């Protein structure tokens, strides 16, 4: 497992309230890291490609699936890179992949994935992603799989 192919990253530092009495980062905290990474990814994508409809207006995103595989623990004060990419885009959903890498050792200690659905605020039903979203992701991610029908 390597980090090539992941253009986007954020840094998280394992905080006192995120660890147990042995100083090990709680497994549920990784999902918070993934959420931070997804939000920052979308904010950066929106800013870089001047997306109008994403994160504003009459729609929002909701997690439909979230998973994490733990390889090694993180400890109090560890600095972690959370690397993120969009792996596929369908009509109204898309998938994120994440890897968690210790900054100091450059070891990958966890990997995760999730599926996000585009929802209409008025109806609370899934709606198609705007074309500008597909174009922006294709420009940013060289290996994204488009499954639009």
Please tell me about this protein's structure.
The protein has 149 residues and is α+β, with helices and mostly antiparallel strands. It has one domain: Hotdog Thioesterase (Thiol Ester Dehydrase, Chain A). 21% of the residues lie in helices and 36% in strands. The protein is built from 2 helices and 6 strands; from the N terminus they run βαββββαβ. It has helices at 29-49, 131-140, and strands at 8-13, 59-70, 79-89, 93-102, 108-120, 145-146. Strands 1, 2, 3, 4, 5 and 6 form a 6-stranded mixed sheet that branches. A hairpin with a 3-residue loop joins β3 (79-89) and β4. The protein is globular. The protein starts with 7 loop residues before the first strand and ends with a strand. The mean pLDDT is 93.
Q: Outline the biggest β-sheet.
A: 6 strands, mixed
Provide the succession of SSEs. EHEEEEHE
CATH topology: Thiol Ester Dehydrase, Chain A
Number of separate helices: 2
Helicity, as a percent range: 10-25%
Query: Which structural class do the helices and strands define?
Result: alpha+beta
The parts where pLDDT drops under 50 for at least 5 residues are none
**Silhouette:** globular
CATH class: Alpha Beta
Q: Write the CATH homologous superfamily.
A: Hotdog Thioesterase
Count of β-strands: 6
Q: Percent of residues in beta strands?
A: 35-45%
User: What is the terminal separation in angstroms?
Assistant: 31 Å
Q: Which oligomeric state applies?
A: single chain
Report the C-alpha radius of gyration, rounded: 16 Å
How many structural domains? 1
The average pLDDT value, as a whole number, equals 93
**What is the annotated CATH architecture?**
Roll
